[in-house]
Batch of 3 targets.
Target 1
Amino acid sequence: MNAQFWLIQSFNGISYGALLFLLASGLTLIFGVMRIVNLSHGAYFLLGGYIALSVIWATGSWVLAVPVAALAVAVVGLAMERVFLRPLGFDPLRQVLLTVGFAILFQQAALDIWGGDSLDITPPDLLRGSVVIGGIYFPVYRLFMIGMAVVLGAILWLVMEKTRAGAMIRAAVDDSEMARGVGIDTSRVSMFIFALGAFLAALAGVVGGGFLGIYPGLDFEILPVAFAVVIIGGMGSLTGAAVGSLIVGLADNFGKALFPEVAYFTLYAPMVLILAVKPTGLFGRE
Amino acid sequence: MLHRLKGKLGWKLAAGCLALGMGVSQTATAAEELRIGFIAPMTGGFAQVGKDMSNGFEMYLEEVGGSFAGAKVKFIVEDSEAKPPVAVRKAEKLVHQDKVQMLVGGLLASTGYALAPVSTRLKVLYVASIPAADDLTQREIAKYPYVIRTGWTSSQPSHPFGEWACEKGYKRVVTIGADFAFGYEVVGGFQRAFESCGGKVIQKIWPPLGTKDFGPYIPTIKKDADAIFTLMAGPMSLQFPKQLADAGNKKPIIGGGTSYDEFVLPSMGDEVIGHVSSLQYSAALDTPKNAAFVKKYRAKYGKVPSYYSESNYTTAQMIHEVLKTTKGKWPGTQKFIAMLSKMKFDAARGPVHFDDMRNPVQNIYVKKVERKKMFGYDKDELWNTVIKTYPNVSQFWKYGKTEFLKQPVYSREYPPCKYCE
Amino acid sequence: MSSRGKILTVMAALLALAVLTPFASSYMILLITQALVLGILAMSLDILLGFTGLPSLGQAAYLGMGAYLTAILATHYDFGLGWSFWVVILLGILIGAATAAFFGLFAIRATGVYFLMITLALGMCVWGLAYRWNSMTGGDNGINLLARPEFGIRLADEVTYFYVVLGFFIASLVMLYVLVKSPFGQSLVGIREREIRMRVLGYNTWLHKYIAFVIAGGFGGLAGVLWAHLSGHVSPQDVILATSVDALLMVVLGGPGTLVGGAIGAFVVVSLRDYLSTVVPWWQYVLGGVYVLTILYLPGGLMGIPERIRRRRALSRSPEETKKLQSASH
């Protein structure tokens, strides 16, 4: 276990965390603003990957696939929120069941449309291969994931903190009644946030697809991990999502490398402990 | 006297004609029906594999016009969802409701282990065309008298491959395999054979089944290994070679057959060129029989057949051959097993016959991934070129059956890693 | 319908089931037995969800504990295959309750969404253990039970096992019914409605919720034992998230807070998953559709339909009719 080992493992953990951040940021926003437990989030991730594949097959362009897939899923999310979730109001149980129902429908539809083979999203050559620093190989794609997470995180932070729209969103998160009281259209905000959450999940799917592959079942595999991040970091907090994804990424990585026997335990046991001690997570607010 | 003779002869002749007539009319009116219950995942993460499996079987059925030697085949497919309890329930439905004479299929070892006791309990034939769990036809065989395997055992291709690795000159190998029974058996078989001819397995890594990010594992691979032996299943097979290449690996990669099987090969890239593996089938097997099989399958289903398809296609062929000898009549479970065990087949994968533990004895092919054109297709594609053939490989390899069975089944701890540092 | 009427209806339905089932096809008997076992699980969840207002996303964990215990005792220790079957039943209930007692310490502090999340996480922990602890649980392969117990009667016979399971179902139903009608049960409902008021009145709401949680775990464990013998096979697939979600659906579909609703929901979900899937390949769409439509259009579940019909009729009645009805009932 020399310095090189720790360096590589940390790098790997951070890059995995970066991917998780892309996925979890959407989930945490949706929960924070709308108090919706979105169990379709994994399906959005998967759909993003599949739609990107279709775009690549049709046009050969990966660069085009990224925004197209993300926007397409954002529209799906929007529709789901307006038509199905809005009438439910705040009822976590019903949201769970409704979003699970949709996840099942999406999974079957994906199977019917794209077939069941394991597919791969091949990124442009620019992002392939590795950079060698000091004899250590750093895969470019991992660097790209970290870069994307940082850029996206920065954009989100700027929007939240420095723009009027962001202020409205934060107001709606903190106290939606008050927000309505001062004239903020909270239903518009909700719609936008849900679409944004779906957008981010799909984006994560396209980016993740080049790293994890795209296959049926991935949606339900990635979902508990995303929830682990959001719960540890705190639901509704972007900072929490960032910290949580770092923690989960590193814990998962080091846990598997050092204690492979209890791989899944190292992921879910901390989740239980944090929920028991501080249910709102590290950075969450009640 | 001639008169009496004529009379006797006449009676005999008449009786004979009557008997013949009755016999003929029986076979004419009693068009036997052979009901086959096929269990495979049709939804969920393994749905595509399940489809490949049933496609293989169905293609053979179509070729022979839907009947085996006069028996009309009723082929009923049930979705196991890749969940053993569901497979068990569907099996019960097939046996009790559809009155099938046999169950075929199953994908995962866990499904095989779940269906085998069902076959014992319901006294129905189970033809395991894919589940490769070693002990089904080894140490546990007494529990399952109605099971016969037409596919392979997990360690069957690994034994000759271990010998091949010695011949190639590898001395120190690191194994990295998915952490479940199938992984243990494939790696175990390799380790045993490799160490018997002087090789050393110096490290064994077990990423959990379903791992997508191999970041934690790749850096721990010992630097002084001659080669890396991998066993990946499902989506893991796709991601691992890529991540390994990205991490700068320069060592030769060898592995279990499913790591590079035609199910995943089309989705792979140039990072797997040169990787060598072993299995009882490769779509690139350059024999006339296989060429015909591959071309037909591809024309029909749009993809090169994997071993999942070949195994079920050949299973259908085997059932047909047995029925040919009984002229289309279902001989009953035990007779069927006895007959099948004694026959020899010329399958797409090559010659196959059975050992006395109801497992196939067949060729094992050492295959290498190359990008080239084959079978007249005009595109350069990835194929598993056969570079060596080991004929007549049984599940026990060169170890005697009794000696082999004395040792425990391959597991995470067995064979023990004597040379692990 | 008066509560007397409801009880009679339930008894009639159970009687019909007991009498008619043996005449159904073998596969049908199997499915009905399966629905009854899952019905016990659903009813245990109803205690939490319908009566106490605690939505648990981890009920499958207790089924898993009971099932694995049964399987391990049967295969590693050769225990539970004769009269000892009854001991295993007891142990299954105990292990379910003990697990819930342990998990409850973490979970009961939370409410609403957080309760959902923490029970999800706890369920995943059990799944993780089942999956990774190869030496004990067989890992991915699971454990095979070779035969059902035999003690004078052969449980291997489908009809016999059906009656045994039916017996446990009725016993569970009766016990839970007594529980919800008792003062303890009433206080659970009180907690569901307004926990703060209950606390003000001096109730130790934490303890009440905790006890309900443990009881639900115990019945979950019972369902687990029966489940293990039903399939003859236990694997991590029995404790995946989808099982817990299915249990939730059963309760919501049937009608939370009605006890039998859970059982009705179980019958519906089993028919969809295990019957419809043998008939059509697009059954997953139906399943997903049922999830969605139930939530949108049946807030009270199937059991709530008569109530809705009554309410709609009341709304569409003219004032004179209403007065006539009111005077008639005096």
Note: Chain C touches chain B at residues 25-27, 30-31, 34, 131-132, 134, 139-142, 144, 146-147, 156, 231-233, 235, 237-238, 273-274, 277-278, 281, 284 (CB under 8 Å).
Target 2
Amino acid sequence: MTGALGPLLLAATLVLPLLLLTACLSARWHNEALALQWLAPIPAAAAAILAIAGGPFAFDAPALRLSLRLDLPGALLLAVASLLWIVVGAAVFASPGDRPNGRFAVSWLLTMAGSLGVFIAADLITFYLVYALVSIPAYELIVRDRDPSSKRAGAVYMAFAILGEALLLMAFALLAAGEPSGSLRIEDVVAALSTSPWRDGALALLIAGFGMKMALAPLNGWMPLTYTAAPIPAAAVLSGAAVKAGVIGLIRFLPFAAPLPSWGEALAVIGFVSAFYGVAIGITQQNPKTVLAYSSISQMGVIAAVIGMALASGDADATPQIAFAAANHVLVKGALFLAVGVAAATDFRRDRLTLILMVALALSLAGLPFTGGALAKFAVKDPLGDGLAAGLANASAAGSALLMLHFLARLVRTASRGVEAAAPGLTRLWPAIAIGALFTPWLLYLAVGDPRDAASIAKLWDGLWPIMIGAALALGLQRWGKSLPRIPEGDTVVAAEAAFNASLPISAVFESLDARLRRWPVAGLSLLAIALVLAAMAAYGG
Amino acid sequence: MIETPPALAATAGGSLLVLAILLPCAGILLSFALGGRFAERIALGLTPIGLAIALAVSVLVWRSGAPVVTNIAGLPPPLGIALRADGISCVMLVTAALVIAGAALYARASFATPAGVSEARAPLAFWIMLQAIWAALTILFVGGDLFNLYVALELLTFAAVPLVCLAGKPETLVAALRYLLFALFGSVFCLLGAALLYGAYGTLDIVLLAERVRPQPAVWLAAGLMTAGLLAKTALFPLHLWLPPAHAGAPPAASAVLSGLVVKGSFFLTVRLWFSVLPALPGGAAEAALGTLGAAAILFGSVLALRQPRLKLLIAYSTLAQIGYLFLIFPLASGAHPWIADGWGGGIMQTLSHAFAKAAMFMAAGLLAESLGHDRIAEFAGAGRAMPATVFALGLGGLSLMGLPPSGGFAAKWMLLRASVAAGHWVWAVVMLAGGLLAAGYVYRILAPALSDGVVVLKSPPQRSREGVALALALVAVALGFAPQSFFDFLQIGRAAATAALP
């Protein structure tokens, strides 16, 4: 039933944002393009629905070295990511009053194209291109305020992004080298990975590179800095959609076909460490946006742990479930970031509906029954198994409940300050967005399982008790929280920055070396020495 | 009558090669004869013709899948002089024609002969030297004979040096003298090497030499001397004493040509020497040594670029680093291995993409310096808003230098990385990745202040047409990232014979 429509929509997923971008650059169409750019993800959303309903399809343009493919895991993520981009984009660009400038719009569109593109990229080169798009232009979204803290956050973000790009480039080179026929398709290189002589190097680089994007500990420092500094809409799409580039990366590039116990368990350990680390540092934070960032670190840790367990057991069928869990996070985290703006704009404590929805959304991340979070938790039950991993996942759900209640408490305290208030339109619409974020996963779940399984009474209790433990802990935090140490946002990144600054004098050594090498006698001698060494080398052969 | 071996036989369309060389030479003579403002018109008028000839040669090579060859005066080597255009000759000819055309268009604003005078020193010198560089490069790219190539290299140096000191300021004169003197040292080494080869084999024709060269002391010494001389002219680390002041001090249009093309001329000759003349030398130690110098250049040049407070010096040091990448072609494309096609394609792609990206960046830097009145990076705040197209060109060039997709720089790095992985030479891969990180660092250092808010008072708004030239060249560097496989097959034309002839 997909016919030619599916491939066309795939191409349009990338082309439409770029078309609008071109229009943004032209003086004639600038304003129209800005006003309409929230519509850019519509082909992506349509493609996702088509793929969820009718199975995978592909689009190839060899002349442009572009190859795209949409399967179920990608479609689940693409559906919610495009939804988030549309909703937040509308909030940012549809109101004519306070419309951002062209440069912000260009970065927005580029990041959007990359963010949607990672879910459909089918070969190494295409994936690397869209991955760079989702990472690099976001700099402009982060530093929009141009105050010192956002500049610092932008610099740290870029350092991590570029380092991640370098790690992945090497990983991709190893993947390509391990594929005997020379194919660059992701399926082919991953299938060849288990027999590749470079398997371990490639896996280590892939986990490090994508782990950086997901802010797994100890590479997590950029995320709190970035989300705290970025304007709320930017934080919403970055934390909701852009971070999933790391998740889809792990889903696409790890070889689930055969069990890899040691690599899988290592990833699971990293994941669970991040899950608890995020909670532990998060509860010491005061800014609600920072708390949300630490919650993302924790949530991405759980996802990474599930991916690790699936890798350990060679469970290739788990990828739609994992993608579903990540998709839930897209919606919830996006809506929660918007909530920070809403809380700043209104006295939401009086508005009972908004208040209830905020609590429900926050606890959705802990798996509150009847929310998408409960489904997400249920979806990853199988890959996690019954052993230690399942116990740790429950404990992390309790931790999430604690962290999110802390978030709500901070939101109540800081709301009156009124910074970064959301536009009135967004404030009015927010309850609808929140309801969508809570219940859209139920629709999506039809694609990966039977929602009735997840709604039984026994499951209800499974979902409730971690939240009760979390609530009890939260009461304790209220009582004794003041004695917790104040950890700077970004935790380890502070040490990394100090180390970086301490290493700067090394480059002065290069400068003095340069001055010495560029003296005439030294340069003349070097010339002679090079001639002789090369002659000797030519004679020696090798 | 002695039968001419097939590799030496002239092919159809060979006269185009002669025409390609004659065109700029005629331009120089005419410019001298007519003088004044005619030099500008002649240079501008000839570039499209030159580009058309370069494209025509490329089409011929593409169609036949073999080099285009002609023997001047109809005599085959060793008596006559051969001109040969293979795949890499063609892409370099086209690149040179495009960059020269870009530089000429860009330079119109700064090197117009003032109204009221019939002739002015700087414009006349610029337009004549620009054509001389073009002529020299054309000979370098199609010359089939080492002596010929040596002469072209000298012409290149003598044409490039005056461009450095066109402004006539004392510091540019010092820079030009440094350049001249060191290049002359290099020339002496090259000439000695060529003389040794001639003494040993009685010919300097590349094809004949390749057949005759055997591992023996004269060849070893000649290889060392010629290569060292060429490296001096390419400014490969640690022989770069002249490059930063020369490239940073020259007028922007000249810097674009010097950084984008002139250093590639001597690099091209080094490639010819090692891949066409000396493939019979066994081993790979010398190639590894060249790669090591390249790797050192990448790290050293990038770190120094990070420390430069002035934009033009930063770009000049970045050239130092980018030249380093070129030399990875020696360890990664030599010998008979499965990965050499990637190494070769990557190295040549780096040459092309750097030519366009760097020319664009120097032009953009020139526009910034003219409009702002300075090129201190720390004071760029607001420049992005005031002159977006210029900063965009700078950013696109930077994209290619960093090796981010889509760009020629990415394609080059990707292929070189694949080759080094396949060869098991990890050190090159690590250095390339580190170089990419450092490049990102110095590009960030330019763009972060330029894109930040600030109020700048432009002395004069940049000319749209000049911004357009910089942007167009930067876009070519980006477009190279979409080069299809057939492009890389084209680069192999003329090389297959050389590698197949290996023992």
Note: Chain A touches chain B through 58 residues (CB under 8 Å).
Target 3
Amino acid sequence: MGVLAERKPLRPELAVTLSTWQIAVRRFRRNPLSLMGLILIVGFILMALLAPLLAPPPPNARNPYMMPHAGYSPDPQPPRPGHPFGTTEQAFDIYYGIIWGARTAFRVGLLVVAISVLIGIVVGSVAGYFRGRVDEFLMRVVDIFLAFPGLILAVVVVAILGPGLENVLIALALVSWPGYARLLRGEILSVRERDYVEAARAMGAGDVKIILRHILPNSIYPVLVVSSLDMGSIVVTAAALSFLGLGAPIGYADWGQIISLSRNWIIGAGGNAFAFWYTVVFPGAALVLFTLGWNLLGDAFRDILDPRLRGAS
Amino acid sequence: MTVFIARRLLLLPLVGIGVTLLIFSLLQLLSPQQRAALYVTDPRQLQAIDAIIREHGLDRPVYIQYVQWLGRVLQGDLGWSETAKMPVARAIATFFPATLELTLYTFLPIIALGIWLGTKSAVHRDQVIDHFSRLFAIGGQSFPTFVWGLLLLMVFYGAWRLFPPGRLSLEANLVVLDPTQFRTYTHLVTVDALLNGKLWIFLDALRHLALPVITLSLVQTATLVRVTRSSMLETLRQDYVRTARAKGLEEPRVINKHARKNALIPVITLSALLFVGLLNGVVITETIYNYPGIGRWGANAAIQLDAPAVAGFALFSALLLVFGNLAADILYAWIDPRIRLG
Amino acid sequence: MTKTRWFMLPVLVAALALAFQPGLASGQAVKNPDTFVAVSFGDWDSLDWAWAYDTASFGVIFNIYEPLIFFEGGRMDRFTPMLATAVPTIQNGLLSKDGKTYTFPIRQGVRFHDGTPMTAEDVVYSLRRFLLTDRSGGPSSLLLEPILGLTSTRDDKGNLILKYADLTRAIRAQGNNVIITLKEPFGPFLSILAQWSYVIPKKTAIARGDWDGTAATMRKYNNPKKESMAFFEFANGTGPFKLERWDRAGRQIILVRNDNYWRTPARLRRVVIRQVDEPATRILMLKAGDADADLGVTRRELPQYEGAPGIRIIDDLPTGTSTNPAVFFTFNIDCAGNPDCGSGRLDGAGIPPNFFSDVNVRRGFAYAFDYNTFLQDGFRGKATLAKGVIPRGMFGFNEKQEYFTFDRARAAANFREAWGGQVWERGFKVTVLYNAGNVVRELGARILKDNIEAINPKFKIDIRGITWSSYLAAMDASKLPVFFIGWLADYPDPHNFTFHFMHSDGTFPHVQKFKNEEVDRLVTAAARETDRAKREQMYFELNRKYFELVPSFATVNAIAFRVQRSWVRGWYWNPMFPGTYYYTISKG
């Protein structure tokens, strides 16, 4: 905090300075869990980017997200040469699904977060900046969305639109945006009274300009924290929707879909309870590590940006 | 205080209308055939779709259907739920007690474990216990519920025959259903069993509650751990705690007496909302353990597009939320006199 | 919290485990020896037989109520008297020579569950009520057609066209006999009656506010609301079991033995049928002995039962009652706003609405399906190849009928001819649909996709699963270009198949927009033919037509199986049973 005061940057309202990066580096070096989170996420990013190299799609494949299958065997088969993670029912290759599933996880997570944050920004800033009746009305709309249990609302939306990943995206965005709207509104409410905002207004800047240049950049940090925590839960909720038959189609490279296929095999075969362990362990590990990584990263973000959250004086 | 409560209660019909409006607007996207298909279970009945559309008035514009539905609701008629084969109001009254019972028994471990782990985490920040509890919490949350559910079922029921699925065993069930042997007061089986003096039914119900409670706790504890931890961290930094420490008070006293009470405020707020949040968690848990609650019915109604059921369910959960919020705010005001007077 | 506390936890769990003394695996003593617990998957619609049209409801109904005649043992083509004392035939004179009048002598001394005697009057009331009810999408047309020549009791505007005089003339009591007069002779009539002639007590019905049997109140009781019918959730029948309770909250139905049954009372004292949605949970319940039969099990889960102690799997049960799945084409697709048509033109990015009206396209699809792989991987080899719309095991099935096989060359040849060669040149893109959750149909769609795409890279197939109610709605609106669905016989007669698969008024041709007048004529004539040998030839001719015109193509005929605890005795199989017949069952 003291470091910031000494610096006196030209645009005092922009709190991201070199000091933040220094704090960040120190945090990651000192705290093994945060470092682990960073490594995990970077690992998944690499996995997603390098998917065509790590798991090349078959030559004629129209859609690389559909897992290749050699035959249609109704039972899962254990890991063996050519299929390091084994195959699910209908002979889908689990290894391929895990690799390309990283792409799907990022796509779903980032898109849902992006859409909900966008809607949340618009609603939250309008409400927080203009206050009064507009604020009341918009917050009631937010209340209405939040009054409905998220999973059920998502189920209703997907049931109406039809199963499929795009519709899952829409449903999850509809469920998530109110949280961001509320968050942003709160932040904006506290920021709008600051000196530099008053100054800008006194200088005659328009409302939109004030919102975009002064208010938003300072309110955005909690969003960063919350959205990283959200990334994991979005992917897990999508898995729940797959379990209910409303997610990606069977054979799509989506961790949630792969693990929902394991539902019939978790209790194992006749004598051996863990005969089909690989149908659960590999997609499960991917889900856990992905969620873990984002959670740890989110916690790290929060600790780094803590002084900023409390607001520069 | 009364004004405060009254104002919040006035919110309820507004939120209720808003929620149902949302549902009906979504249903607007469906064609009349899709809405009629709920009543048609087999292709051989397809030729009756037109008749069904006419009979249920599904070809009239959705806003008219909404207004008519709303009118009936104000008279107490929530419509018929095809997926439950009974009126919607009766379905809610039938299934909710089971979920309520499950939720109440889940509350205790979640709060106890969550607060305890969260506190320990905050106090021993960045040490082993902190890392462990955070990993445990996140792990529980990031595995899909059904994976935990089936694994636990396999171990505790399949292998050990300890905790069976369902709500009651066959014998207990037959007794409970028989009005000459069992009087139902609260529809909470454990409570009613005790009121009827039948201890073995009470124990039987507990045995069946074990697995759903454990599964739900695993998944939901994470939130509470995180909130307690950050709230405690926040509080521990406060001046009055530093003062207490400086005065030389022992650490446990500092935590128990001063820090925890104030840290509990957001936790209480969260607990009330957690209750409603559990409605999300029970959906899959109830399906796997064949526990006849409202989550399973609600999700099933949503998947099959049972419009009156979904709308009724939406209304009901809005009601729960408003009351939950109200309860939280009252508790909050009661604990923190600054709010009451301010 | 001190360190010792941590140790307590595992010790506690171990202690609990010992205290509860986990069950013994094999050699388990019979659990609940006089109660049968069946776990199932599927909602009960109504316990009133005049309304119900689903197997779940009838699975309960046929244990509580009884029809005039019943299937003999495991046969679906032979009948035995039940509430009637004889099965009408021309030989015993109870069926008139012109095949139109059936006389049923009614058994005396039978009582309903409330103790009141069953009379011919009750039989007449039950049947007339069934015809009058005729709820939308209900089963009443099954008897309305042969008896009164009507497809519905209402006209297009919803007015009642059923006449009391006709109703009472066609179904009447004469002393202890019930006489039913058909409009035209109808071969399958007795097989329909074996499942749709349950007898309910007239007095109870009236006491519960149902139809009083007169002309004056007919209008009110036509197409009633499901929940307002007398026997929706209340039962009073003559069967070996009484309804003790329909526990909606617990999703279970409890039946209790009828000790005053007109035959020897059943051995089981109680039957509990429970709905359990999750397959894994059903499996664990059966293994633990908490359930005696798994009525919802599919071949996919079967390996999890194999070798399990105390479980008996009875396989290779003959069916002959279903054609499931078949692949259907829509001849005139509603492509407006329909993503499954793609571009809506024959340009390689979609299909025009009449794409499937060219028989070469249909044949191309039919030859491109890998039937044997489907059989092996979808049914674990427990199925037989279909030869047409009539399933193996049903009268009219022709083993020698030529039918489609997986033949890439022929498929390619057909595609080359389709639409004057344009299909081959330009290619197409279409979606094959199935109902989400049905793994077998999804597999079929995938097999079709893989094989067609392998024929020509310009052929692009997507597969998509949609939820059941949306699926039915889209089917009704003719929006599905090519789709998988199946048919379970209403009654064991080939007419039920030929009508619904080939006649333009039938369920499928209606939505497919398929019509062939010659086929229509043949279907109707075959139903009316009374000479068995002639009839068989007519169905053979229909099989040929089905192969030639290929409005749809059948894939396999599944073989049925049953999973139950090995302590279950007395169970027997009849392909027409909608569920388990508990009368003969005991445990021990």
Note: The mean pLDDT of chain C is 91.
